[in-house]
Every structure is written in C-alpha cells, then in structure tokens.
Design a protein that fits this description.
Blueprint: H1 7-15, H2 30-40, E1 52-57, H3 60-67, H4 72-80, E2 83-90, H5 97-100, H6 107-112, H7 115-139, E3 143-147, H8 152-159, E4 164-173, H9 189-192
Antiparallel strand pairs: 1-2, 2-4, 3-4
Helix pairs in contact: 1-7, 2-7, 3-4
C-alpha cells in the first residue's frame, strides 16, 4: 500500500527534512508564521487542549537575552537565524477548554483541576504540537533548527512566567551554506513495531 501524500511532499516534510544549522539572511515574515500556525493548529491533541504557546524572538535585544541561555554549541546559530521561536507548554490550558472542547466543557474541572495533572498533559500535548509546528515550518518551504540544548529555567524566567514551561527553541529560516549534517541512521520497522 502506498501513501496518499504526493512523493514530493513526503520528501519535503520527512525524507529530506533535517535540523538546519545555518540560515540565509532572508527574513521570516509574520505572514509566514501566521500561515504555519493556521495550518498546524488543526493537528489533534487530547481534548483539543492545544497547550502549545509560541514566543517569537525578533528584536536584537531579545535575541541577545535568549542567546545567553543557549548551550555554547547553539549560541552562534541562534544569534544568526532570521527568526527564533521559543515553544512552551501553557500549564493553565484548561481555562480554554470550555471553548475548545464544547462537547464536554466540564473536562476543565473533571480532569484538569489539579496542577500536576495539567503539567503532565500540557507537556505531552504541547510536545506533540511542537512536532506539528516543525513540520509546518517545512511545509512553508523553510528550514527548522529545533534545539533543547538550553537553560530551561533561565529561558522561563527571561521570557515566560510560572504558568509556562519551555520545551525547545526553534531557529527558522531559509537554509544557508552547509546547513545540514549528514543524514544519521534510522531504526528499521522491525526494530520499532511490535504486534501483539
């Protein structure tokens, strides 16, 4: 059985996708990011909770504040990327559930009244949305450089609040010279899939 998605789109979104390490100077516009979000917001999450929050780091001052929290190997590329996004999980996502999940508005209190439960669910579902966001960046013809080499608590204090947990930083733009490391191996189907 073959996939329904066009092979060129499969290549763009998956087979040729890699973490970009260099970028050109071409700006990433607000319209591009809006189009990416308007596509990926439809990706499913549990109870449609949609806990991902995106902080776009555009100004030179904000970029400087972010770079100091990045691991040494990530600082130069974060400083040079046309746009950087901090992806975080909103631990108070449940406040939006009556509007986002009208089929069962009581889910807000029935399942998510306790903060530790919300934090676990927000982390898992926002990470899922982060994956959608990265694929959306690729769908827009841009390259993504997701990174978790950073001081998470420093980024939280600098850019977020106690209700948001940073997940990753994503550099975004057109790939520059030598943007890609060689493709690393992947596990085979039989090494990953078990039928019971």
């Amino acid at each position: 059985m073959s996939l329904v998605l066009d092979p060129a789109a499969q290549d763009l979104l998956f087979r040729e996708a890699r973490t970009a390490n260099t970028f050109t100077d071409e700006p990433v516009t607000e319209e591009q990011i809006q189009a990416i979000y308007d596509l990926v917001k439809y990706g499913p999450t549990a109870f449609n909770q949609s806990p991902l929050r995106i902080t776009l780091v555009r100004s030179p001052e904000a970029r400087e504040r972010l770079v100091k929290h990045m691991a040494e190997g990530n600082q130069a590329k974060t400083a040079a990327a046309p746009l950087v996004a901090i992806l975080s999980a909103d631990n108070e996502f449940h406040e939006e559930l009556p509007a986002l999940f009208p089929a069962f508005p009581q889910a807000k209190d029935a399942f998510f009244a306790e903060r530790p439960v919300r934090e676990g669910s927000a982390a898992m579902n926002a990470a899922l949305q982060a994956g959608y966001f990265i694929v959306g960046v690729r769908a827009a013809g841009l390259a993504a450089g997701p990174m978790t080499g950073l001081d998470f608590e420093g980024v939280r204090k600098e850019f977020l609040d106690d209700d948001h947990t940073p997940l990753m930083v994503v550099n975004i733009g057109r790939p520059g010279p030598d943007a890609w490391y060689p493709r690393s191996p992947r596990l085979a189907y039989e090494d990953v899939v078990t039928t019971v």
